[in-house]
Specification:
This protein has about 550 residues and is α/β, with parallel strands linked by helices. It contains 21 helices and 24 strands. The strands form 5 sheets. The protein has a 7-stranded parallel β-sheet with strand order 11-12-10-15-16-9-17, sandwiched between helices. A 7-stranded parallel β-sheet has the order 20-21-19-22-23-18-24, sandwiched between helices. Strands 1-2-4-3 form a 4-stranded antiparallel β-sheet. Strand 3 and strand 4 form a beta hairpin. It catalyses: Couples ATP hydrolysis with the unwinding of duplex DNA by translocating in the 3'-5' direction; ATP + H2O = ADP + phosphate + H(+).
Length: about 550
């Protein structure tokens, strides 16, 4: 007979874990689960997590043990954890590191690469695999195979796919030394690395390469600068766009000993290569005569460190070249490891495993990011729009639903509920944004807005000269708008969780007036817009945020909502 306890979890034999949201220990259990499990569904009362191989390997690489994870499940489980689940967790985590990639002579960093294992049976299994055999030379002994010099990254990818993630102990090319120091200072107006930022830098330094997961607004750029100071070599920084590149430059000038002459921008507008070079993903993946003309930048200089900002957005061509850059130290910075293309395994194998992950709500509790209240406000299509939606092809339905005309009036009503606050209206479709900007009499920023004009308007928003901006997805990434306290999301990339992370992040910088940020998503009822909204809810639930569902009619009542 099974004995019941009072925990909030039900662990099932198919590796799913059910979390009872209303349980008093639910928040504590959710935080513990996030170390190794992925949230799959998040309806009102029961959230469903899945324990995955990649989640367990990331946890193992970050220093967690199978015993810790089993203890977490036992502590919070309502019923005894199925024996096979505990044993499979232990077996999965044991797979990490039983194969290692090393130097043939550990004392000689220039010696050949080898794949080693103390268990010859594992080596026999992987070396006979069709995709792995061409990456290896003739067996040296029963515990060692030589690795082709060019194959370090590809071998790690294939081993992860095979279920045997190798620990890379082969070391790194130091790169050309270059002194970079943080300019920390105590007292009023000074700054110092926060405790979690220092832990993130230390975790990266100890691991050699890997990914740091921090909320938007928690200072990922500063962690990147700390890693640069720790490595002390010429550095290539890859970012999402030119605005982000200039924000990185400004932050490095503010936080480090680097001068303007030491930081170069490599983008569509400028082609500078300096000891610290900031390049955009867009320029690296642009083609000339069918070739990636600028990808050679990644390997053309003796970089000691490559920083991948927003690593969850890394384009496929950069993955391909990163497979050839395994001798360079790499750090990925992101707010979420979720990739909409399912290539989390490639991030794990090519950039490195997760080295540090700070929970959003923990950093909020410390006062380093602002608290946020999240609302989903449901609207109805007008009769003419409902007819157009009903006869549209599948690929057009989301655009029609997301662009419901009533969202213009509702956006104005929400803005009126927040007098004096700085508001972002964010959307996906340019024609919808143009109509919204005209209806609200607000300035509009899209990808077509010149970079200098974008920077001018963003700066005016930061300084309070502009209180309302309508923006496209160009504002999703690495744009620092610390005074934004209200975001109204009118359309997006089909419920993308990574996009939700970025958009919520626009609001999470601490507010001078200790305001609680308000994040609204306007969703068209009984359409694919509402279906896609469930993905966004999953992300918010993963981070511990509640999502209040409201009807548009509630905004016709007098103000007084939270």
């Amino acid at each position: 007979m099974l004995l019941m306890t009072l925990g909030p979890l039900i662990v099932q034999s198919d590796h799913t874990v059910l979390l009872e949201v209303a349980h008093p220990d639910a928040e504590e259990a959710r935080h513990a689960l996030a170390v190794f499990a992925e949230l799959e569904r998040a309806p009102e009362h029961i959230h469903t997590y899945r324990v995955t191989r990649l989640g367990l390997w990331n946890a193992r690489a970050a220093g967690h043990t199978a015993e810790e994870i089993a203890a977490t499940l036992d502590r919070y489980a309502k019923f005894p954890v199925p024996t096979q689940v505990s044993s499979e967790i232990a077996e999965t985590m044991r797979r990490y590191g039983r194969l290692t990639i090393e130097r043939a002579d550990p004392a000689d960093p220039g010696s050949d690469l080898v794949l080693r294992s103390e268990e010859p049976a594992i080596l026999r299994e992987v070396s006979s695999a069709k995709k792995i055999a061409p990456l290896l030379g003739n067996r040296l002994d029963e515990r060692t195979y030589p690795v082709e010099a060019w194959a370090r990254g590809q071998l790690k990818q294939e081993l992860v796919a095979r279920g045997w993630p190798a620990e890379d102990l082969a070391g790194y090319t130091p790169g050309e030394p270059y002194e970079i120091a943080l300019e920390e200072s105590a007292g009023e107006g000074g700054w110092q690395l926060r405790d979690y930022q220092r832990k993130a830098v230390d975790a990266f330094s100890a691991g050699g390469s890997g990914v740091i997961v921090l909320p938007c607004g928690a200072g990922k750029t500063i962690v990147g600068a700390g890693a640069m100071a720790a490595v002390g070599a010429k550095t290539l920084i890859l970012v999402t766009n030119t605005v982000s590149a200039r924000q990185w430059r400004d932050e490095l000038l503010r936080r480090t000993t680097l001068s303007e002459d030491e930081i170069g921008e490599y983008s569509g507008q400028v082609k500078e290569v300096k000891p610290v070079t900031i390049a955009t993903y867009q320029i690296l993946t642009s083609k000339r005569k069918g070739e990636y003309a600028h990808l050679s930048l990644l390997n053309a200089h003796d970089w000691g460190l490559i920083v991948y900002d927003e690593v969850h957005l890394l384009p496929a061509p950069v993955f391909k070249l990163t497979a050839e850059l395994q001798a360079r130290r790499r750090i990925g910075l992101t707010a979420t490891l979720v990739r909409e293309d399912g290539r989390e395994g490639d991030v794990f194998s090519l950039i490195g495993p997760k080295r540090y992950d700070a929970a959003w709500k923990d950093i909020e509790a410390q006062g380093f990011i602002a608290p946020a209240a999240c609302f989903e406000v449901r609207v109805e299509l007008q009769e003419s729009e409902r007819y157009e939606y009903s006869v549209a092809e599948d690929q057009e339905r989301y655009r029609i639903a997301a662009s419901a005309t009533v969202k213009q009036r509702l956006a104005r009503q929400i803005i009126d509920r927040h007098p004096g606050e700085s508001v972002l209206v964010i959307g996906q479709y340019i024609d919808q944004l143009e109509a919204m900007a005209e209806a609200l009499d607000a300035p509009l920023i899209t990808g077509q807005t010149p970079v200098d004009e974008r920077e001018r308007m963003f700066q005016a928003f930061r300084e309070g000269e502009i209180r309302l901006l309508v923006v496209s997805k160009v504002a999703n990434f690495s744009v620092d708008l610390p005074d934004a306290s209200v975001a109204i999301q009118i359309s997006g990339s089909f419920g993308s969780r990574q996009e939700e992370a970025q958009r919520l992040g626009r609001l999470l910088r601490p507010k001078a007036k200790d305001l609680t940020a308000s994040f609204y998503t306007l969703v068209t009822r009984d359409t694919v817009d509402q279906d896609f909204a469930q993905n966004r809810q999953r992300f918010l639930a993963e981070q511990g945020y509640a999502y209040t569902i409201m009807n548009a009619e509630e905004f016709n009542q007098p103000a007084g909502m939270p």
